[in-house]
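Field: sequence (string)
Field: structure_tokens (string)

Example rows 1 and 2, in order.
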Amino acid sequence: MKDDKEALRVGSAVRRRRRSLGLTLASVAERSGLSVPFLSQIENERARPSARSLDKVAEALETTAERLRAAADSARTVDVVRAKESESGVRRLVHGRHQLGALEFTGEQDTGREFQHRNDEVLYVADGAVEVEAEGRAYRLERGDTLYLSGGVRHRWRATEPGTRILSVAVGEHIDATVDPRG
């Protein structure tokens, strides 16, 4: 029975991928040769696609069945990261490769390094203060402040107070979130 449940859960991954490409069910049906009602049932996890059908759907969505299964697996992940899990002031808050990545930086971090991420990122100052340079402008952030950076924005930051804690949450670099659904 475990395999049946896992096969059913691929629907959410299919829906996310279709929407990220800005495709309608009708266009996926046309590309795959499968019917709109069947695709809708797959997405709503009321139908289990055969391996052949999933291959057709994956091809229509410009990906592979394996990637769709992996995306479905990551959608079911529950994981705890303990406060003790830290390396030299940087702690991963999410294990593995998922749609979101999160890091906590603690202390007076100043790598002097410029960053440019493929996808969107949010910086949240949990404690202390930080100076951020982004798109040629300087920002001073204090406890409770948040800075949003869209994908592609070059930026650098440094903590300016002892005990500063910064939370960085970003769409995973392996995710192509650069598609504009507005066309």
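Row 2 begins here:
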Amino acid sequence: MSRDARINTLLLALVAALAVLPLVLGLGDHKEEPFTGADGEAETAITEIAPEYEPWFSPLYEPPSGEVESGLFALQAAIGAGVLSYYFGLRRGRRQGDARSSGPSRAGAGTDTGEGDEAGPGTGEGDGAGPGTGEGDGAGPVDGTGAGVDTSTGTGDGAAAGRPV
């Protein structure tokens, strides 16, 4: 197992433990509503400390029930997760694209020294699409002088796709 796979497995196990342990250990059994949100907890603490406290602001929209409020919160979380996933996926794709474009060019890198289809600077009989040293396979209407693009690495039998030298 690779290092990244082990780290991902460990993180997944940690998240599962964070979700399951409070239920297993009964951390909210002494409360009427064991797993209320932070807003409810803060409101309870404030009314205990200062019963005469008046909030400065009131909500713009008051959902008709707790289920609707939970649904809206879940929708907000899903949209946020989607935006973050899109951003990180876009960054990764751009990084991979940059790595491919800045890497060594494989155009014309093949060496055809035998018979068959090989793209690249061919010295044998035929042309094709890949670096090979024997009878290669590939595709491309490239003559044996080699202006082809290296897209295969085969060394098996193949039919000529262009003009022999």
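free_text_note (row 2): Helices lie at 3-25, 38-49, 66-102.
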